[in-house]
Amino acid sequence: MLSLIHVVEWRAEVTGDEIALSDHLGGELTYAGLAAQTERSAAGFAAAGIKPGDVVPILARNQVGWVTAMLGLVRLGALPAAVNWRLSPPEVTGLLRLMDAGARLATMITDTDCEELAKEAVAGVGGPALIPLHGQLDAPLTVDRPVGRLRGAEPCLLVHTSGTTGRPKLVPLTHEMLISAVTFMKLEVPEAVPGARHLSALPLFHVAGQANLAYSLFTGGHLHVLGGFDPAGFVDELAARRIQLTQLVPALIAAVTHEVLGRSEPPDLSHLTEDRKSVV
Prior knowledge:
- The structure is a single chain.
- This protein is of the alpha/beta class.
- The chain is built from 9 helices and 11 strands.
- The chain has helices spanning 4-14, 31-47, 64-76, 89-102, 115-123, 175-188, 207-219, 231-240, 250-261, and strands spanning 19-23, 28-30, 55-59, 79-82, 107-110, 129-132, 155-161, 169-174, 197-200, 222-225, 245-246.
- Helix 5 (115-123) links the parallel strand 5 (107-110) and strand 6 (129-132).
- The two termini are 24 Å apart.
- The model is unreliable at 275-280 (pLDDT under 50).
């Protein structure tokens, strides 16, 4: 696989009728639907003035639209940049300045939950224009397929990290990084097969959330994403959806364990797959 776009197109061909993504808002797409929506998003962004090579920040909560926006930008040849919605307006403004220093920054994509934060942040840099996450135009895609960018060594997404300085730095994730990571994850957890049920509350602005997304798409699973993490709600989702695979950082594992042990009637989590290294 050369890029995430190739992964999605491949899955649309071989497991097109299987559910790829769903979210807490009721959104749901099959793999065929995900490929089609990626094309529509790319067309809409092109009609809105986004050009190949543009850096386009995404400031939004986890949802199906976050994924289709990211993939649509990649399909168009632009570079999506994942922004932490927990940051303050001045911190987001600082990130936008970093992005603007390296490439054309004309637009920013946001949702209703993050719209006020986005408005305050862009005011600090005199732009860019805001585009609603679900406001992509349904226009014909006239932009050529960005063959030159759809290679493993090309950046797929910009994320940011503060490292040891406390000041955010932009870090590119290449297609190759994500696909290599999920290849090894598949070797670790062979139970990740087409149709397997995944659950994630890991934010898509973080590398862990992106790895979880790529892992599910690569293996043909059904990933249900949540807009945030709440221990009780997360456990309820695990049980109700009969989730088989999930990825959690240690703090969230402790919170979920505490929630399960504190219930008078333990939830049925027998469908969860347990790996010897506790990565699911």
